[in-house]
Amino acid sequence: MRRLRKCIDPGRFLYSSAALAVLVLTQIAAAETIQTVAAGLDNPRGLNFGPDGALYVAEAGRGGAGPCAPGPEGTRCYGATGAITRIDLRSGQKAGVASGLPSLAGEAGDFAIGPHDIAFVGLGNASITIGFSGDPRDRQLQFGAAGASLARLAGMQAGGNWRLGTDLGLYESANNPTGDEVDSNPYGMLQLPGKLIVADAGGNDLIQVNANGSITTLAVFPDRLEDAPPFLELPPGTKIPMDAVPTNVSLGPDGYYYVGQLTGFPFPAGGANVYRVPPAGGTPQIHAGGFSAIIDTVFGPDGSLYVLEIARNGLLDAFINNNWTGALIRVAPNGTRSELAAGQLIAPGGVAVGSDGSLYVTVNSVYPGTGAVLRIKQ
Description:
Elements: H1 17-29, E1 34-41, E2 44-49, E3 55-59, E4 68-71, E5 74-87, E6 94-105, E7 115-121, E8 125-130, H2 139-143, E9 152-156, E10 162-167, H3 168-175, E11 186-192, E12 195-200, E13 205-210, E14 215-220, E15 224-227, E16 239-242, E17 246-251, E18 257-261, E19 272-277, E20 285-291, E21 294-299, E22 305-309, H4 315-321, E23 327-331, E24 337-340, E25 350-353, E26 359-363, E27 371-376
């Protein structure tokens, strides 16, 4: 049950790659405000604008030939198939910038774990989160020397050369801030002068990585009790613990950090919150609730908060009914909510705001080859 609480089971995601591609293209054609700016991506996740004005996408890859080892969702195999892709929005050209980044995935290459997010600092240098999802003490036992590249930060130069950086898994195994299961899966991050703020979806915490590599814990997101789903056949009224699973962090207009949660099993629809954390750290406070399976957040220039849900009806509905329709919800400064591109985002994985106010969203973010980036013009 402990491992199940975080898992996304690729064996129960029954869309074929071709069906996903046809579905997305059909829906795009029906919506004049939505345009595909890149396609053919492998498990695309977070995306961000570089100082050159181009859009950079973190692709979690498709795993590889191994070594292989059991994981939360089944056997997963290592391969250096993670990548960073650059999209020139003026010319429409897509080009690989960095390749050979670590990736874990099953035989089909779906639900990969690898590069999850990218953020820029200075004149083109970037930071990249590389996930793991498991006890980081097992990395090299499971994947040999390649395991040391997981649950890490990586740094990328403007030309695309990259190297491994701070070991976030080592911090989790040595400190375990929640005092719970030792688990690390670095996911979304925020680049600020002299520091990185990282949401560890496995460790259930928000950490700060300073320029010298030192790490401090800013906040922890504790378990909470939720109703057990009927298929577990437990006595009526039984509650089970649910992980928070923070997946992303954004800087609000007030200088606070805003963190969205995916939630772990039983993945209650409407059970995900956006939390507000003081910049110096402290107890997270609920800023807004009633969301499902939050995978990313970003603030717009007018102070609106955009909340991206990977599955608008919750992950159980996605697993059982193959309903991976996501949602992008705008929360205006006065709290009013509205949905953009309703019904047209399939398994979205990341969102960014362009200088013209357009929103850019990765879709088909859990499958190889069919991933895409959409532009939503408001």
